[in-house]
Design a protein that fits this description.
Elements lengths: L20 H22 L9 H68 L3 H7 L3 H72 L3 H42 L30 H16 L16 H10 L9 H4 L4 E3 L9 E4 L5 E7 L2 E4 L8 E4 L5 E6 L2
Antiparallel strand pairs: 1-6, 2-3, 2-6, 3-4, 4-5
Helix pairs in contact: 2-4, 2-5, 6-7
């Protein structure tokens, strides 16, 4: 009898069960791919790399901010030095007061000892032991005078004590103010360093090709500034020639007391500054420019006043000191010195200030050019005054 098993149909395999490990892994993988795709689609795109022009603008802005912060640092440093000197004077006074208190204390000790010795014997006994009644009364009068002097000594001692206490309080307050100023100075210094570090970081991220492009932009900027300076110089020269021709055609009247003249021959306001018409200012300016020329090539270093490096106001102060004129430390104070002059009336030696915040200064040398300490990473150099927006100018002496 044939086996019944041979008539059985084989069950068709319709697929793998959903709860098998292989199916679980495949499902998880698909879910992960879907999730990653969704995240990729919604993620914010990376910030595009700034162009060379944007880097140039940002770096210039950072250098400007660093220049302003440098002037703030210089002013704070100057104030801190003044406070330190004041604290030293107060501490000297405290020491002197302590000496006076000690001296008053010694005087009181002397009187106290004398009183003790006199008080050790009663008046009756003192009279009995005295050589004579006259000597007793002389001693009594002496003790009365000592008592008066002792009272004066007590008053002096109390006065010196009060004075010493007041001076100690003043010294404490001055020291606290100095400590606060030093902390502020440290913050200002860090502020400048942060600005400079940010500028250096931007420049460091540039490729060699981008750095070459940036250098080309700087050259074009300088050429444009030079062109403006030369055009301005030609314009001023043409104006002087027109004025000279006008004077020849209409010479000023002579005779009487009108022959002294007031510098009207220039007709351009160049005689407005003190000493500008008699050559005194020109002589000083020549010393200033000779000094400034000798510094060309030395590096800009913020807060520096020479002799190996300078910031902008450090250079102008050092140059004018050579001519015997003491300028303040910061651009904000230097702009207040001397006589204000228009750009068209500039003479060699005048100071030209830049930007609305007066954060930069240079020494005018003529023909629309100046000598200045430009910015970190650059050296003292000659450059057009039209390279930056002009705030105003002064004639220091």
């Amino acid at each position: 009898m044939p086996a019944l098993a041979s008539h059985r149909k084989t069950r068709a395999r319709t697929g793998i069960r959903a709860n098998t490990p292989a199916v679980g892994f495949t499902t998880a993988a698909l879910a992960s791919v879907t999730l990653l795709s969704t995240q990729s689609a919604t993620a914010a795109p990376a910030d595009p790399k700034p162009s060379v022009e944007e880097v140039q603008k940002k770096v210039d802005d950072l250098y400007r901010q660093a220049g302003t912060a440098t002037q703030q640092y210089n002013k704070a440093k100057e104030a801190t030095e003044t406070q330190r000197k004041s604290v030293d004077r107060v501490l000297d006074e405290v020491a002197k007061s302590a000496d006076k208190v000690n001296e008053a204390r010694r005087s009181l000790g002397t009187y106290a000892a004398a009183q003790y010795r006199a008080g050790a014997v009663g008046p009756t006994a003192a009279l009995m032991f005295a050589d004579s009644p006259e000597s007793y009364f002389e001693q009594t009068q002496l003790m009365d005078r000592l008592t008066e002097r002792q009272q004066v000594a007590v008053e002096d001692y109390q006065k010196e004590q009060r004075s010493a206490a007041e001076q100690r309080a003043e010294a404490t307050k001055s020291l606290e103010t100095l400590t606060e100023s030093q902390a502020s100075l440290k913050v200002g210094k860090q502020k400048v360093q942060n600005k400079l570090a940010a500028a250096r970081s931007l420049l460091a991220d540039l490729t060699a090709e981008e750095k070459a492009r940036l250098a080309e932009l700087e050259r074009k900027k300088e050429q444009e500034a030079r062109r403006k300076a030369e055009a301005k110089a030609e314009e001023e020269a043409a104006e002087r020639r027109r004025q000279e021709e006008a004077q020849k055609e209409n010479p000023p009247a002579t005779g009487g007391d009108t022959g002294t003249g007031t510098g009207t021959g220039t007709g351009s306001g160049t005689g407005t500054g003190s000493g500008a018409t008699d050559g005194t200012y020109a002589a000083k300016a020549e010393k200033v420019l000779a000094f400034a020329r000798a510094q060309i090539g030395k590096p800009y270093v913020w807060g520096a006043t020479g002799p190996s490096s300078y910031d902008c106001s450090g250079l102008t102060a050092a140059a004018w000191k050579e001519a015997g004129v003491q300028l303040p430390r910061t651009t904000w104070d230097q702009v207040k010195v001397g006589t204000r002059v228009a750009t068209a009336d500039l003479l060699p030696g005048d100071l030209v200030f830049f930007y609305d915040d007066i954060s930069h200064v240079g020494i005018y040398k003529g023909d629309g050019k100046m000598i200045h300490a430009p910015k970190p990473g650059a050296n003292v150099r000659e450059e057009s005054i039209y390279y930056m927006p002009i705030y105003g100018s002064v004639r220091p002496a």
